[in-house]
C-alpha cells in the first residue's frame, strides 16, 4: 500500500483539500439537518399544542361527566374537519387511564386501558422526531377547572416530515459530493499550478544522469519571491557542489603525486642501486672486450638491470598517467603496485606478504585508476604504521560479494582520527592528511565497503568492491 | 341551480310579505329527529309553514326530546313536532295536529343496526356489547329496543355492557359506523333517508332487526289550544303543505309525502311497548 507521504505534493494537497471539504460538508450537513429537525419539531409542537389546547377546552366538561358520546362526537367532528391532515388518532382517557372515547374506537375501544398506547408517547413540550417512524405519539394531561381530569393521547402523521428529512439529506449528500468534487478538482489544478516550479526544481535536482543541473535564469519565477529565492539558493548550491567536486578531483590528482612523491626516494634507490652494477658491467665490457664470455655475461647483467629500470619507469609513468580514467583493471596493475611499493618496504626493512589471486575477466569491470589509488594509499599507510622492520601484507582475492583487497600491517592500529577519516563522512580537521578520506570517497564511488579490524598485533583494512556494479 | 334550491328561493320571496307584516310569530318546537342538514330543512319548513299560515314561524330546537316536550307543556312553544312516545307520555295534555306520511303511510319502524362487518343477527346476539340509543324519550331510538328487552325479561343497562345516548338518530348511525358502539337503535325513517343522502355513512352499518310499523312522530299542541285561531291556521298550513310549491320543497327535503290529520290508534303499538317496559 502506498503511504500518504509517498504521494506527490501536487496530489496530496488537493486530497487534503478534498478531505477537509468532506469534513466541512459533513459538519454543515449536520447543522442543516439539526436545524431542519428543530424547525420540524417546533412546527409539530405548535400543532400538537394547538390541538391539545383546543380539545381541552372543548372536552373538559364532557370528560368531567365521562360523556362518551360528547367526547366521541367532538373527536369525530375534529377528525372530519382535519381530514387528510396530520392527526391520525386521538384518544381521551379518564384519570384512571380508561378510554372514554377515541377518534377511532376500533383502535381504542371505550373502557379499554390507554396504557398500551402510551408506549413511546412523548410530552407535547418535548416532542422529538427520531428515526424513520411515520407516526409520533403525543401525551398531554387534560386540565379542566384547574384539575387534571384525564389524558389526551394523539398520534400524528409525520411521514411527510420524515420524507422531507430524507430528501434534504439526499440533496445535501449529492450537493456536498458535487461541491467537494469541484473544489477538489479546482484545488488540484490550482495547487498543481502553484507547485509547478517545485516540480521543475525537483526535475532539475534528479536528472537522469544523476547530476543536478542549474535552473536557467529565465525559468526562475518572477514575482514569487519565496520560490525565486529557493531557485537562486538552489543554483548557488549547484555551483558550490560543482566547485567541491572540482576541488575533490584536484585533490585526488594531487594525492596521486603525493603518494608517488613519498615513493620517489625509494624509487631513486631502486634506480640508483643497479646503476653501480650496470656501470661496472660497462667497464668490464670495455676492459674485456676481447673475451666474449665475459662480455656476454656483462651484457646479460646490463640487460637485466636495464629491463628492471624500464619496468620501474613504466610503472611510475603508468601510476601518473592522466588519461587512465575509464581503463579496466588488469592483473598487471597489481604487479605495477608491487613494483612501486616493494622498494619502500625494502627501504624500511619490512617484510611484504603479497598474495594476489584475481582473474582478468572479473577485474575488468572495475576502474584501474580508482583501485590502484585505493590499494597504493592503503599500502603506504600500512607501511608507515608498521614502521622500521615491521610487516605489511596485501591480499587480493575474489569472494561471492566481490573483489576483496585486504591490507594488513603490524603497527599499533589506526588512531581514532585516521579511523574517522577512513570509516565516516565526518568533516576533516584542518591540516590532516586526505589520503584515507580519498580512499573512502573512491570506495563509495565504486559502491564498495570498508571494514577495519584490529587483532592482537595486526591491523587489517579490508575493502570489498562489488563486481559488475552490484553492492556487496 | 337545482330544483330544490330554486323552490327554496321562491318560497323565501313569497313568504317575505308575511314576514314583513309584523304579526305575532307562531313558535314551533322541533326534536332533532332528522338529518344533519338541519339548517336547510329548517329554512324550507319555516318558509312553507309561514306561507301557509300567513304568519312568521319561529322554529325552536333543543338537544333532547325532554327539553322540547317541556317547552311545549309550559307554553314556551305553541306546537311541536314530537315523537310518538313523549306524546303518549303526556297524552292528557296534548292533542294531534297532524301526522306526516312517509312512503304512503303515517307509519315508520325502529331499526336495530350494527357495523357492516358485525356477525350478530338479532338483539339477543348483542348481549354484553356497547349500544347507542338516540334519546331516552325516543320511541324508535330507545323504547322499541327497551321493550324488546323487557319482553326478554332484560333491561338495557344490564343487557348491554355499556349503553349511551347520542341525542340524534344520525349520531346513532355515526356511533355504530365509527365503531364507538357495537349496535344502535335508530329511527328507520332517518336511516333510510341517510341511505339516500349519505350512503357512505349508512353503508358502514347494516340493519339486523326491524320493528313492526308504528305511528310516525306527529305534530302536536297543547290540548286546550286546539281550535284556537293560531292552531287552526297552523294545522291548515301543515295539512296543505303538499299542495304548495314551498310545502312540497320542504316535504321533498324531508323525504315525506305530506301530512294528514291522523288518529290516536296509529300509536297503539307504541302504547303497547310503553306498557311492556313499565311492566
From TrEMBL, chain A:
Residues 192-246 form the HAMP domain. The chain crosses the membrane at residues 15-39, 168-191. It is found in: Membrane. The keyword Ubl conjugation does not apply. GO terms for cellular component: membrane. Residues 259-325 form the Signal transduction histidine kinase dimerisation/phosphoacceptor domain. This is histidine kinase.
TrEMBL record, chain B:
Gene3D superfamilies: Periplasmic binding protein-like II (3.40.190.10). This is Phosphonate ABC transporter substrate-binding protein. Coiled coil: none annotated.
